[in-house]
Amino acid sequence: MQAGDPLQLPNSRSKGQLSHYVQDSGYKNFPHVAPDSIEKATGRLLEYRTVGEDGVRSGKHHFFPGQILYSKIRPNLSKAVVVDFEGLCSADMYPIDAYISARYLLNYILSPTFLSMATKSDTRVAMPKINQSELNSISVPVPPLREQRRIVAKVDQFMARCDDLDERQHRRTEKRVNANRSALHHLTTATDYAEMAVHWRRIRDHFDLLYDAPETVPELRQAILQLAVRGKLVPQDPSDEPASVLLERIEEEKQRLYEAGENRRPKRLPPINSGEKFFEVPEGWEWVRFGKLIELISGQHQKGTDYNEEGTGIPYLTGPADFGTTSPMASRWTTVRKAVAQRGDVLLTVKGAGIGKINVLAYDEAAISRQLMAIRPILVHPGFVSLLAQAALDRFRAEQVGIAIPGIGRDHVLRLPVGLPPIPEQCRIVERVDQLMALCDELEAKLTASRTKARHLAASVVHHMSAA
Fold first, then answer.
1. Homologous superfamily, domain 7-142
2. Is the predicted pLDDT of residue 22 greater than 90, yes or no?
3. Are 7-142 and 243-421 in the same CATH fold?
4. Radius of gyration of the chain (CA)
5. Fewer Cβ in 10 A, N or C end of the chain?
6. φ and ψ at 9, to 5 degrees?
7. Architecture of the domain defined by 243-421
8. How many CB atoms lie within 10 A of CB 464?
9. Residue from 192, 237, 171, 234 nearest 422 by CA
């Protein structure tokens, strides 16, 4: 940096002391600060770890109270902080000695002006980085010391006001989310159409207040799902063939598929007891175990020699990373035909951190890993089967077992109690849900765009203030 060399970089103080701190087991609680310990563009230090927790073996990057820690990796994130304690920082950071007010220099480092100069010559995409010579070449406007202090005080004053506004906005959003959640709870637990109509009118009359933030839309989606699978989203038609007749045809089809060698022997499932019927199904519906309606294909692991990345064979899907935004996008293929799902099967993640993610297979067929199961509908609308699985995600996640690699088993899926409507009503429900989910997507996009616009406006104000 120029204009009076307001800083010294890198740190050169007490280098010989570091190995002692790191090697001595008594210093395993010595602070260790990494870029992820610093909040983006605010100069705030977040929770940091210790030398022992991070497994640090080198004491090369020592910092002292009053220094600025600046992340040289991804300078566009503007991660910098003034520290008031001694410790070690990661190799991704520069400890900086400021020859002017460290707080003033920090504010300038966090400004859009500094950011534009720090990133203008970097052509690296995967991991942008600023080296020492590039950092030293950046010019810094240096006012008299008293003015530096006045500037820091004024910035602190503005930031305190911003924090207050953020806190108010957070409390406001939290109240809206809670009010929205309460309104939707009353809607989904209504016992009849008359009661549901009352709660829906209440939501409709206060819609702009309840849905003014993107965070409220997921709750609305969940409410739509619950209304759909409980028979409260579309009216029943007495002329529809009842679900009891459909169940008889499903049993016959499952037996036919077994005898033809296409499916495994149908598993005997226990009857549903009264305690599992957690809502009253409409006329023409039936309570049934999910396994009665589907064929469940458990994924199987394939060795590295069994699959390829050249597109030879059929797609091999290993988990939600392959799901894409709207349908699976394979990155691996295999010629080993085991655990093969078919077009239209509902894919459910059953192991690992992504338990409960759902997608529908758009390929003609694909092999699936043991992280997935494929739910194949039998004489039931595939879209309705997908809705039943989505509505049960909270239950699946609550039932997961295992510590190292949590997961759900076949019985969690097969024994799930669900309400089954007649086929024509299934079609009406799926069509209605598709319409409402599209509206939710539109609402969420508009709310997100509005928030982004507000943030851009605030950033513009800050930019013009710093350029003044």
1. DNA methylase specificity domains (3.90.220.20)
2. no
3. yes
4. 30
5. C
6. -150, 135
7. Alpha-Beta Complex (3.90)
8. 10
9. 237
